[in-house]
Amino acid sequence: MSQITGYEVWYYDKDLDTTGNPLGWQELKIASGPQGPPGATGPTGVAGIQGVVGPTGAQGPVGPPGPQGGMAQLIPPVEQDASSLLISPWQVLPSSSVVFWVDAWNRCQLHGEVYYPNGNPGDYSAIMQCPPGTVPAFVWTLSAVEDVIPPRMYRVDVHPDGNIYLRFPPTGSTGQIFLDNISWIVGPIA
Description:
Helix content: under 10%
Number of helices: 0
Number of domains: 2
CATH topology of the largest domain: Immunoglobulin-like
CATH class of the largest domain: Mainly Beta
Structural class: mainly beta
Distance between the termini: 81 Å
CATH architecture of the largest domain: Sandwich
Radius of gyration: 45 Å
Strand content: 25-35%
Order of helices and strands: EEEEEEEEEEEEEE
Mean pLDDT: 86
Low-confidence stretches: none
């Protein structure tokens, strides 16, 4: 019988001593031997759980107020010529001009009057290209007014392909329309 405590080994000796009593528990004296080769590295243990998040620090002081803002601080959009963007046979009405601008909200706005020579443009007639840098992310369906009495409304689509199309014009149309109602947001909407 033996008992191991720490690095000591004990055994019970039943032999009798000189008085006739058992010797009892005896420490086994073991000398240190050579160290054996190291074993293979064991697998990595699982990650422990996340500790408690510490307290949030104090709020810093409030900075000084900024200057008063308002509409007066906005930079007004610059009107730019768009007549070269018309797709033949569409033309600028001689008494008009075709311009565009992009405002502070990234909205492109057209202005002017165009016509289709001899009237009667067909469905999906490409009126003009979108001004540079104003192609929308998706189709914008808008309205334009025909310059007749009484006025008629046209459907106009601003396409991600970079063109502006007239849709479903009525038979006998003059093909003379105002572009002033046509505006769209440039690029994707956040």
